[in-house]
Design goal:
Distance between the termini: 6 Å
Shape: globular
Largest sheet: 6 strands, mixed
CATH class: Alpha Beta
Strand content: 15-25%
Strand order of the largest sheet: 3-2-1-4-5-6
Helix content: 40-55%
Radius of gyration: 15 Å
CATH architecture: 3-Layer(aba) Sandwich
Number of domains: 1
Number of strands: 6
CATH topology: Rossmann fold
Structural class: alpha/beta
Number of helices: 5
């Protein structure tokens, strides 16, 4: 089992590293630019070219069944599920075969509503409860290794 993080806008990098070290799991932080990360032999920083979906494509090419993907990107979550990976949103809610279709449909609906001016903004602010839920959910996934 390995953990792959869609790291560019990930608010839970520290939590991922804490769980990975506790369970001795390799982590791949995939981003379009270099970032300052804790030094650990478990952490692999992967810097990909700029461009839409380049980090997502790298993650999908490298994951295997049973790996964990951390992302807030719903299309990436869908692609990871197709490869039999566990997928956890930044808010601690897992993406599954049972809920990914609904998540994709809601994403498309919100995009249309933003384009038409019916709603503004994208996501609610990140809360302490989201961080706590994330940490608990990742811990449970890591125990299945």
């Amino acid at each position: 089992m390995k953990i792959y993080v869609d790291a560019d806008a990930c608010p839970v990098k520290e939590e991922v590293l804490r769980v990975a070290e506790r369970h001795d799991i390799a982590v791949y932080m995939v981003a379009n630019s270099w970032m300052r990360l804790e030094q650990s032999p478990l952490i692999n920083q992967i810097i990909v070219e700029e461009g839409a979906d380049v980090a997502d494509d790298w993650i999908v090419e490298h994951i295997a069944s049973g790996d964990i993907v951390i992302t807030g990107d719903i299309p990436l979550a869908s692609r990871a599920l197709e490869k039999m990976a566990y997928v956890l949103g930044n808010n601690g809610k897992p993406f599954t075969e049972a809920n990914i279709g609904n998540a994709l449909a809601m994403r498309d609906l919100k995009a249309q509503l933003r384009e038409s001016g019916e709603i503004k903004g994208y996501n609610p602010s990140y809360r302490k409860t989201d961080r706590s839920r994330f940490l608990q959910a990742l811990e449970e996934m890591a125990r299945h290794k």
